[in-house]
Specification:
Length: 344
């Protein structure tokens, strides 16, 4: 496509010195003639003077007059515009309908004729699989599972009994949906009596789940991942958890049982949240934080236990100085004691 066509596709302003044809997409520092790139982080602006790209997607903060030999597409959000172009150019075609005779499929399963079930898949009783959904090899799908339209299930995923998966859901390899919740009752003898987990997991539309994620079934009702949420690799979501729409859960985070997250919540890497808490809409919790009590208002939080990020920054600035402060306090205490002894 020519630069003018790309700009029209995005609905963005174009500054075109020569309306060249774009044939590929590349990082700004490696882009060549015929390629499109973008800048969303100011630290990459240094490459504008040397890039060979024929077009750069950029914000209006760039002074394009400084680069009279370059073509620009100017957008409010260059990263979002770049994502849209990638999705347009590299759009995955729908799967070719296919059901492998090397898979084990119960006769009661209902699989849409446009779906694709590849080799060595196990599909249990009363399973429903929707239109243009692709199930890749070595997937386990338990009894009474429902999977919607346009889903992509990568190899070695296990979807346990009664789980409900919406439309346009992606689940990456090694993840387990509907594993038993971690529920035990202590007996008089100190033994841990397993409580049967008879609920399920509900994953709504447009959710993506990374690799090696565990989402536990509820004890009685449902563990729910709501529409548009994205979950990174190596995340643990315990039984009865509810995660609100369009939330982001980053790698190695863990959410304990019966905690409820609101909409647009972001948990950065290695965040831990205790059980039976409520996290408000539009909360951001920074990396390696520990949440031990409910968060009632939107904002950014950090620390163990968490408190407001701006206060955490002040505390963090003080921490390296604590030992020197301690020594000075001890010196002052000694001087005060000497003065008191002299008065006596």
């Amino acid at each position: 496509m020519r630069i003018s066509e790309l700009a029209n596709l995005l609905g963005c302003k174009a500054i075109i010195r020569e309306d060249k044809e774009i044939t590929n997409i590349a990082p700004i520092e490696k882009a060549k003639s015929g390629e499109l790139t973008f800048i969303s982080n100011p630290k990459y602006e240094k490459y504008l003077s040397s890039t060979k790209a024929d077009c750069i997607i950029a914000s209006n903060k760039i002074n394009t007059e400084e680069y009279p030999n370059l073509n620009f597409i100017i957008c409010d959000n260059p990263y979002l515009a770049f994502a849209k172009i990638i999705r347009f150019v590299y759009k995955t075609p729908p799967p070719e309908p296919y059901i492998s005779d090397k898979s084990s499929i119960d006769k009661t399963a209902q699989i849409d004729k446009s779906a694709r079930v590849e080799e060595f898949v196990y599909i249990g009783r009363n399973v429903k699989i929707g239109k243009q959904t692709r199930i890749m090899p070595f997937v386990f799908i338990g009894d009474d599972v429902e999977i919607g339209d346009n889903c992509l299930i990568y190899p070695h995923v296990a979807i346990r009994e009664k789980s409900i998966i919406g439309n346009n859901v992606i689940i990456h390899s090694g993840s387990v949906i509907g594993s038993d919740g971690f529920g035990y009752a202590d007996t008089e003898d100190g033994e841990h009596l397993k409580i049967p987990q008879i609920g399920n997991v509900i994953i709504e539309d447009d959710v993506e789940i990374g690799s090696n994620v565990s989402i536990d079934r509820a004890a009685l009702e449902s563990t729910v991942i709501k529409k548009g949420t994205k979950i990174d690799n190596l995340v643990q979501i315990a039984h009865n958890v509810q995660i609100g729409e369009n939330s982001i859960i980053v790698a190695q985070s863990g959410i304990s049982g019966s905690t409820k997250l609101g909409k647009n919540v972001i948990l950065a890497g290695q965040t831990g949240i205790a059980g039976h808490l409520k996290i408000a809409d539009n909360v951001i919790i920074t990396a390696k934080s520990g949440v031990g009590s409910s968060i009632r208002k939107a904002g950014v939080y950090s620390g163990i236990p968490v408190y407001e990020h701006k206060d955490w920054l002040k505390s963090s600035a003080i921490m390296p100085k604590l030992y020197e402060m301690y020594k000075k306090i001890k010196e002052l205490e000694n001087k005060i004691k000497e003065l008191e002894d002299a008065d006596d």
